[in-house]
Amino acid sequence: MAEVLNIVGGGLAGSEAAWQAAQAGVDVVIHEMRPRVGTFAHQTGDLAEMVCSNSFRSDDDEQNAVGLLHWEMRAADGLVMATADRHRLPAGGALAVDRDPFAASVTAALMAHPRITRRDAEITDIPADGHWIISTGPLTSAALGQAIQRETGSEALAFFDAIAPIVHADSIDMSKAWMQSRYDKGETEEERTAYLNCPMDKAQYEAFIDALLAADKTEFHEGETAGYFDGCLPIEVMAERGRETLRHGPMKPVGLTNPHAPDIKPHAVVQLRRDNALGTLFNIVGFQTKMKYGAQTDVFRMIPGLEEARFARLGGIHRNTFLNSPTLLDRQMRWRAHPHIRFAGQITGVEGYVESAAMGLIAGRMAAAQILGQPLPDVPQDSAMGALIHHITGGAEAKTFQPMNVNFGLFRPLDGVRGGRRGRKDRYKAYTDRAKAAWQGWLAQSTLDADAPAA
């Protein structure tokens, strides 16, 4: 009897995983709880329903990391991208789709495939055996979320994002900022210089507080004001509690000496902490926020040293179930404690429609390869797919892990390419050229054949 791949969740990741595995010759069952069990965001029982924006963001595969991810998915005959192209709407350089026909078309393609069936039922427990991909997304049902939490431990599964902004390291002005841990703590030089510091004088601090208080904010959704947030209040809420609150919290200036002005004690200090192993990304410590995105960029660029900051991700707090994947998943997207189960999509700690579908594409191919006994080589880290997988399976700092969009900060640095703003166009083109070559090479080595004998 042929082995079956079971996929829990029929969103973008689950849909792409099912397509990839079925195209490789594996029988697939999609377990989707909708429409029997609804969510506050979904409106239909269609697979691949888009519940927020209708945009897949930039389609520029030479200057944009998400556009590169589009290119890689198209090269791998991805269903999501092919369907998006058929239902494309005018959106300048972005790929936006007519969302209802898009979801209906994905559903029709999957249901017409002879190797795919669908079961409308909620999975509430961790499967004990078989081949599984869990791709339940940010709105994982309470029952399954609790089952995962029991298995992983309370620290390994989050039900909310408390996201601090992330800045590209090469956009920080180091003539104003410096590297130092408070009180020079640490046994090694790396530990003693683990934080990047941006100083403020009193006038700068007061102007920053005024801007925080005046900025446009988004409202909390129902269920987002739980006690969980007492431990990670938005910085603007802290500012509302008193103008000095931040100086006694994440912006306290103690234990630090500014080497650019050693005789002047900063009135406040904003600290950034390395966010990935490559040291190309830094997160602003304690700066989770409900400010609208445009307001965030305006306010955060008031911080000395961040006037020209480029943000890999802006801050936020919202409902989002995700794993601490660096501690739980191996390079094949398998749950280390239960290797018959893979995870895919936003639950792995990627952010965005495209990134979710991309992780589904990889998980579907990897699961099919395992079932067919034809192991795949590791996805090359220099591809967009590989950069994402590397980030969520070990490249990110586990202690500060939060969902992430694809961006060039996740890529290994290039040799012999000009840095800084002026070199950005050539640098991005070099990243995408290298990624495309790596991805095409991987695809050439990764053809699956259901009729071939197992290795």
UniProtKB/TrEMBL annotation:
Superkingdom:
Bacteria
- E.C. number: 2.1.1.74
Tell me the ranges covered by the MnmG N-terminal domain, including all copies.
6-374
Q: Which GO terms describe its molecular function?
A: flavin adenine dinucleotide binding; tRNA (uracil(54)-C5)-methyltransferase activity, 5,10-methylenetetrahydrofolate-dependent
Q: Where in the cell is it found?
A: Cytoplasm
Chief location bin? cytoplasm
Q: Which residues bind FAD?
A: 9-14
PROSITE patterns membership: GIDA_2
Q: Which UniProt keywords apply?
A: Cytoplasm, FAD, Flavoprotein, Methyltransferase, NAD, NADP, Transferase, tRNA processing
In terms of InterPro entries, this protein maps to:
FAD/NAD-bd_sf (IPR036188), MnmG-rel (IPR002218), MnmG-rel_CS (IPR020595), MnmG_N (IPR040131), TrmFO (IPR004417)
The answer to keyword Cytoplasm applying to this record is: yes
Kindly state which reaction or reactions the protein catalyses. Answer: uridine(54) in tRNA + (6R)-5,10-methylene-5,6,7,8-tetrahydrofolate + NADH + H(+) = 5-methyluridine(54) in tRNA + (6S)-5,6,7,8-tetrahydrofolate + NAD(+); uridine(54) in tRNA + (6R)-5,10-methylene-5,6,7,8-tetrahydrofolate + NADPH + H(+) = 5-methyluridine(54) in tRNA + (6S)-5,6,7,8-tetrahydrofolate + NADP(+)
Tell me which Gene Ontology terms the entry assigns under biological process: tRNA methylation; tRNA wobble uridine modification
Q: Which cofactor does it need?
A: FAD
Q: List the GO cellular component terms.
A: cytosol
Q: What does this protein do?
A: Catalyzes the folate-dependent formation of 5-methyl-uridine at position 54 (M-5-U54) in all tRNAs. NAD-binding protein involved in the addition of a carboxymethylaminomethyl (cmnm) group at the wobble position (U34) of certain tRNAs, forming tRNA-cmnm(5)s(2)U34.
**Family the UniProt entry places it in:** Belongs to the MnmG family. TrmFO subfamily.
The identity of this protein, by name, is Methylenetetrahydrofolate--tRNA-(uracil-5-)-methyltransferase TrmFO
Q: Which organism does this record belong to? A: Pseudaestuariivita atlantica
